Amino acid sequence: MRAARQALGAERRSDLNAALLAHLAAFLRGFDRPPQTVAAYVPVGAEPGGRLLIEVLQGEAERILLPVSRPDGTLLWGEFSGPTSLVPAVFGTLEPPVPHWGTEVLDQCAALIVPAAGISSSGVRIGHGGGYYDRTLAAVRASARHRGVSAPVTVGLVYASEFGVAVPAAPHDARVDVVVTERGACDLRAG
């Protein structure tokens, strides 16, 4: 999957990302009220969304939370305060400087936008093998159940060729609610 993504080439990925980001923005505009807070990620290399993902999200939400990878396999979250504020981190990623918060800060989010290498037609996502997002999404959903509220909508970003693919599934794999590709948004909650 990674090799196929790389083989698309920079120009093709740029075109795909422009369409994907337009569909993501339209999806977020479809909420009952504009989302105040969304959580996302800073795409690395050939990841969908590209360098404009955060910029597009700035036009759709008041606050953006970004992940901070910890050595213990968990994610903390910090607030995006501009592209020059991001600092280099593990795995070649960029992350926000302190302060950082635990998963509980995601309770404030309308949507959690997560990376994936591929997503099955039932919403099972495969990432890069660390399980960071599976643990995070499980914690967010457990917190919402405990509080008797709806969990934030989980949105997976992939290219259309990476959606509906065979993905190994284990009980701990967290499914996404919505998949956004360059062809549109597919809400899996509707069946």
TrEMBL record:
Reactions catalysed, as given in the entry: (6S)-5-formyl-5,6,7,8-tetrahydrofolate + ATP = (6R)-5,10-methenyltetrahydrofolate + ADP + phosphate
UniProt keyword annotation of Kinase present: no
Alphabetical list of Pfam families matching this protein: 5-FTHF_cyc-lig (PF01812)
Domain of life: Bacteria
Keyword Nucleotide-binding: yes
EC number in record: 6.3.3.2
Names of the cofactor(s): Mg(2+)
InterPro entries: FTHF_cligase (IPR002698), FTHF_cligase-like_sf (IPR024185), NagB/RpiA_transferase-like (IPR037171)
Keyword annotations from UniProtKB, A to Z: ATP-binding, Magnesium, Metal-binding, Nucleotide-binding
Protein family (similarity comment): Belongs to the 5-formyltetrahydrofolate cyclo-ligase family.
NCBIfam families reported for this sequence: MTHFS_bact (TIGR02727)
The protein's name: 5-formyltetrahydrofolate cyclo-ligase
Provenance organism: Corynebacterium atypicum
